[in-house]
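TICKET #2291
ISSUE: user wants both folds in one file
ATTACHMENT 1:
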Amino acid sequence: MSWLIMMEDSMATFQANESRPAEQSQRRVLLAAGLFLIVGCALQWWRLQSLTASMDQGILMQVLWNGLRGHPFESTLSSQLSTNVIHSGEPAGLGYARLGQHFTPSLLLWAPLFGLIGGAALPLVQVGLIVSAGLVLHQLALQLVPARTANWLTYGFYGGNALIGPTLGNFTDLCQLPLAVFALMLGLQRRMGWLILSAAVLIPLIREDTGIMLIAIGLWLLLREPKRWPIAIALIIWGAGWMVLVTNALMPLFSDDNSKRFMVENFGQYLDVDPSEGASSLSVLQQALGQPFILLKELFSPPGKTFLYLLGHGLPFLMVPLISLDAWILAGPSLLGLFLAQGSNDPLSITIRYTLLVVPGFSLGALLWWSRRQQQIPGRGTRLAWGIAISLSLLLTVSSNPHRSLSWFIPDSVRPIVFSSPIRQWEHGRDARQVLNLIPKDASVSANTPLVPLIARREVAVRYPKSLHYLDRNKNKLAVDWIAVDLDWLERYSVAFRGDWRALKRIKQELPRQMDAYRVQAIENGIAVLQRDGPQKLALERQLRERLATPMAPDPSQPSNNKP
């Protein structure tokens, strides 16, 4: 990031007209935003081509596809994650509304674009919203600090591992949050009632837990601008009231997944009741507050990971958020929820979607810290350190290869070495699309994870090998019409990753037995499609059985198997 310093200094030294610093600042930030947009869209496009996008991408694609056809928020893929399927062993079903898992009305905003350009809409929306958030943050910063400082704050925003990681991942509802929060703060700063109202209404509609940001902003207003207490109280009441209403009254109308799955999985350590009975957000809060020692333990556990998580957020802002009271007020409520949670989706991973609950608060905290400094413009030494910090953040982001988005030039594993060349990845994605074109658009399909986004735009899609059946709208159990499986993907990654190894082992055990009912119609580059009661093609069947019979790599979870 030394180029940032050079750009700043050269522009200041050689610019003929220094009477328009705001315009010059805007151009530099637009350059950074444009770079983020181009790189982000390119990497997201590559993820789609190389089959790196996965289950969550498929879920939201199916949700929007169904919404355009008169079944809003329905998804058989999402149904597979429901408590009825996970705990009771029922098949996934038509008519299942995802709103019981995550209450996300704002998703409807993107349905028209999805209908217009298809699957490319989601990556475009995600990257575009994050880029827009940075530009709004810059406009807000220009209200409070000099242009140079505003620039560096925006560079820090775009250079954060906690922002880049989820931006390069599967589409998430939370990509809407930074823009909405910054717009609200800009409205408060400029006293623009329409912007305050619009952002305040939108934020809780992003997801059932995003109202926490309104509570945080309300608390900040009470502390920093107490004369505006009516707005602060209104934000707190609206944010908290909506979260309570949604989680305790609205979501149960669709399913009991939030209470019986997500509340128990994330906060079950505080519950003293049978987990199968479920728990509401209010009951979890009540029981957690009655166990202060467990709360304190969970707050700092594990200490090393918690510390690194905070460093990851603070690094692109030169650690300023970690010493900013404003940052802790604005990010604290979201951080508290993440620190006290548990679950298979690690809430303290710096590259997954949950960080987007924290990024707005830490970004604003850094801005407000600088706004209260007598010396508001960072000197050359500070800018050098800041550039190094952003560069280090980018380096750590690249080295972590978030969501395998950089697998075209970074090995996915070193011990043992796992690397697929860009050519191989491209050919693999091309072959997958070619083979999947054999499946009719209206057919029901069970596909394993790498193929899920490619078959998601249909009424019935489930994940293989977890399911071969589904419930129709009359609750009749039916077998899917087609199976699609990517063996090559699993074979490549199973040598190093336990999850892929286990998935491959299960497929090798189950698929041969299912080939009596499902007959191979095509196999190319390790990607096979099978049709229920389809015509028998003996050569293809023999080819697939031979591939399934090949010995597996050793279990990568065994340390002895990872030696070079």
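ATTACHMENT 2:
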Amino acid sequence: MEEYAYKSFLYEQLGGGEKCKNAENALHNFSTHRRAYNKEEEEENDNDENANASEELSTDSDPLQPLPTFPEADWPKILMLIMSYATSPTQRDILLLGALTALGATMERYVRCSYSGKYQSPCLQTFFVAPPASGKSGLSLIRLLVEPIHDKIRQQVDEEMKAYRKEKKNYELLGKERVNTEAPQMPPNKMFLISGNNSGTGILQNIMDANGTGLICETEADTIASAISSEYGHWSDTLRKAFDHDRLSYNRRTDQEYREVKRIFLAVLLSGTPAQVRALIPSAENGLFSRFLFMKVDIPAKWHNVFSKAKRTIDEEMEAIGKRVFRIHQHLVASKSMKPKTGQSYSNDILFELTDAQGEQFNKYFESLVEEYKNMLGRDFVASIYRLGLSTFRIAMVLSIARLEETLSESPTTSISENATTSIICRDEDLDNAITIADTLMQHAAKIFATLMPNKEEDGTLGIKLSPKSERLFENLPDKFNRQTVLSIGKKLGIPQRTAEKYVGEYVNKHGLCKRTGNGEYEKVKQQNADERSLLQMLGKC
């Protein structure tokens, strides 16, 4: 019956004739698992890990199954409110991850944790990879959450500039007496929202003026890529240092002025097309790739109601939430400015910690993640997992402080330390949610990583190009399998462990033959979808 439906579809689309006959024949040539056509008639020798270097694989298109999204969970109330204004699941994910990045930026140097022997703050670097009309414009809403902080800083700059101009005018009126008087210094041009529509040097100066803090939020990543095209190496270094809270410095050639910030707390929130990713991060092996959280989003499949009966627009709603974000920031600033308590060696930062059980859960999860991916995508991708661990810890920090917002007093002069404590223990649900986010984003990063790898020769025939060994492994895998099943079947077939795991990585991230369902758990895509997709690809060429 299904075959008859396909035939009818083909005749309807092609109007019968030779094209239709060829397409019909192609239908019969498909095996039940979307069989690949091979250039190589004989199996190559595969005794070491480099034996498959010459395999020719098509780049293929996106997987048949969509990448996972964030689940429903017990999120902090302020995040639940932000997500409630999403018009699609895609926009919901954008708002959640975007809000986490923006909130982390506002916490900058005021919140910290000990991670791998170094104090870290919740500053994230996030990149939404999406085609046009996919909902990534939601980032413009995220900007509204932090604009009150930006506006207050700009107001202070305006007041300082007025005072500076007055002092400068008085100084110039001194005449000869100026030699005995120190000239007034122009105040730094501080801001919180740092525009990417600038030169690389200009952006660097803005970061310096802001004492290493702030948020770069751009809905089109090529804005940044164009700005730094002539000084890429230096800018890439700046972003890497920002992620690690390292020292940032530079020399101004015009007046030979040396400037530095001992620790940088910059967050980055970008969106752009896959081509814009490559413009900013030309290689998957680039250290910048492993520092970003990537989310690949698609065009929504359903139309949403564009006519709202709400009394306020989404912009107005986000502005109202921005006032709450501003209050969190003011409490953090107030807490920082308080005198340290007796016997306390550091200032009143909010110190974030995990319990011993939570630490064990965290380490166990990322240990298993490294084991799962190290052979699938290679050692270069393992660097992304290591840094994802830090980003996950930072997300847990943001979630904890966001919950603390519910207990704050309305008085902006009252510090967080007077309402809660300078030490916060992570809640179990916040760590669980952070790990769930990490697991989702890892799959997105794996897909984008695969697209940034050097392309190999594409197959001009119908289907996917697999090596004989790869195809034989796929044939022997059950519909649902795990990593141990792969290793067991691979051993029986004489396929080395690293090679078998690499094949699974290609099934998932390059060919769309399988999807990941859990940590080390996989499932083949439905046969009908695979056949249908291949037929539609063929129809497009007719």
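RESOLUTION: both attachments delivered.
EXTRA DETAIL ON ATTACHMENT 2: The chain has two domains: 31-59+456-528, 77-301+311-451.
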